[in-house]
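Lecture notes, part 5. Sequence design as translation. It can be helpful to think of inverse folding as translation between two languages: the language of shapes and the language of residues. The source text, in structure tokens, appears below.
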């Protein structure tokens, strides 16, 4: 194939009159119209001298044009850098410098700020608003149109995705054409996607979940997306009867079940409801099932690998687990220090191997080497275990492991028990410095509306279900937990906020 990713996602769609995107205002866009826009923007990029392999950074609000620029990058052979639209100017400048970006595209406000810092830079700076206006459209008037894609191979980098990790500077995962093609192909087949599907897309598009999972799968089967700029309960409720599937994060589903308008009748046409990016509790899974008659399918993935495992399409979907390895992917649980493979039931680091695994970290050969075993398995940094039926359970991050008095505490185990206590809506368990134990366990709790559980009763409940060393030393109540845009709890933020909690009171 001349350009493998372009051919898999966009080939033969130039005359496709079927709808690709539907919008909240009742308008829609066909595949034919979408591909025409891709060619237009690709021609713009060619006319300003961008060459295959050049990095293009995009920081705009979620819109049709985000997907257009993505497609144009694939067509032109550019390396796409999707940037979180909430990223600060300081963060953006770091990404641009580190990636040696050739062009950055953003809205007028952001560009105005960037120009102050990039006066003597050779980085091209262009504007693009969510309605398609901006300096790029001015260039389009004199751009030479070409439908011919640039030659790329499977190992060429298609995108750089920055991930912050826990410490140190952000690192960019190099995602290849093969990574994206293999994972989308696998998900398309495993989740039974077809041209008849209509997906509710309420996810961010700068993230792998919204872009390289949801969008790529739909493009691969030439299906349709209901494109919602930002998750909103009423907006999603409105379109549920029109859809066959939705991809979301646990926060989406917890908010949906709070709506009295969510009913079995509303979701009866839905064939697949997928959750990921953050742990799905059994309680939430069961409540959603009670309200809708639909069992959420939980899957597991990460920036460096896209999707890794999934609960089955047919058969038991076990809440609290992320299912089995997807076809073509090998998963093992190993001792993080020795690398020794562990048997079922034992907690260790999740390691995997497959065509979905990224090429490495941009300009970080040492970091790349550290994260791969000699036999090619990637070390995820996630802690997990296989149950006796082979279902994978993620119990936390290696960085979140609490070692108190020399004993290991896995936060998720404690959180699961805490969340089952009446009056507790949600919890986050962290380890904090302690003069005696090294680390002590702290529980941050969100109460159910109108109910503040008695700490003494919570402690008694936990002591009846957990070994004493696993039980929190203290309990703190908050109105909400800090989260990123995908609903993942920011435990680093909690650790920073309460880092002196035990040292100050001792």
């Amino acid at each position: 194939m001349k350009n493998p990713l372009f051919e898999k996602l966009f080939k033969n769609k130039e005359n496709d009159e079927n709808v690709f995107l539907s919008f909240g205002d009742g308008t829609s866009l066909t595949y034919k119209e979408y591909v025409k826009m891709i060619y237009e923007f690709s021609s713009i990029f060619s006319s300003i001298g961008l060459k295959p392999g050049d990095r293009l950074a995009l920081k705009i609000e979620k819109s049709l044009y985000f997907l257009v620029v993505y497609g144009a990058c694939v067509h032109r052979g550019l390396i796409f850098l999707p940037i979180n639209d909430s990223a600060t100017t300081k963060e953006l400048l770091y990404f641009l410098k580190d990636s040696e970006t050739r062009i950055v595209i953003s809205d007028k406000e952001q560009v105005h700020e960037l120009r102050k810092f990039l006066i003597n830079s050779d980085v091209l700076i262009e504007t693009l608003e969510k309605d398609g206006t901006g300096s790029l459209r001015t260039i389009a008037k004199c751009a030479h149109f070409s439908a011919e894609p640039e030659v790329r191979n499977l190992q060429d980098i298609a995108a750089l995705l920055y991930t912050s990790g826990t410490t140190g500077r952000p690192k960019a995962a190099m995602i290849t054409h093969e990574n994206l093609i293999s994972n989308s192909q696998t998900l398309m087949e495993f989740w039974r996607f077809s041209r008849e599907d209509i997906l509710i897309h309420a996810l961010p598009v700068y993230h792998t979940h919204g872009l390289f999972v949801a969008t790529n799968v739909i493009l691969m089967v030439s299906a349709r997306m209901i494109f919602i700029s930002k998750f909103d309960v009423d907006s999603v409720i409105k379109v549920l009867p029109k859809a066959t599937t939705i991809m979301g994060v646990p926060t989406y589903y917890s908010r949906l079940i709070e709506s009295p308008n969510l009913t079995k009748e509303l979701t009866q046409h839905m064939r697949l409801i997928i959750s990921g990016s953050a742990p799905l509790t059994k309680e939430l899974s069961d409540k959603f099932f009670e309200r809708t008659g639909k069992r959420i399918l939980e899957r597991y993935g990460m920036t460096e690998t896209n999707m890794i495992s999934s609960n089955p399409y047919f058969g038991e979907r076990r809440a609290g687990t992320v299912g089995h390895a997807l076809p073509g992917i090998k998963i093992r649980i190993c001792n993080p220090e020795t690398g020794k493979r562990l048997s079922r039931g034992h907690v260790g680091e999740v390691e995997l191997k497959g065509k979905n695994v990224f090429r490495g970290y941009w300009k970080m050969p040492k970091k790349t080497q550290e994260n791969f075993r000699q036999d090619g398995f990637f070390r995820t940094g996630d802690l997990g275990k296989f149950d006796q039926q082979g279902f994978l359970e993620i119990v936390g991050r290696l960085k979140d492991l609490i070692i108190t008095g020399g004993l290991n505490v896995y936060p998720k185990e404690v959180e699961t028990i805490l969340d089952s206590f009446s009056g507790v809506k949600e919890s986050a368990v962290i380890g904090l410095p302690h003069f005696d134990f090294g680390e002590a366990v702290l529980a941050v709790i969100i109460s159910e509306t109108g109910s503040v559980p008695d700490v003494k009763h919570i402690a008694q409940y936990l002591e009846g279900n957990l070994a004493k060393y696993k039980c929190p030393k203290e309990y703190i109540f908050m109105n909400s937990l800090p989260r990123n845009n995908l609903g993942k709890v920011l435990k680093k933020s909690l650790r920073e906020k309460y880092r002196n909690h035990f040292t100050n009171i001792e």
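The translated text above is only one of many valid answers, since several sequences can fold into similar shapes. The chain has a mean pLDDT of 90.
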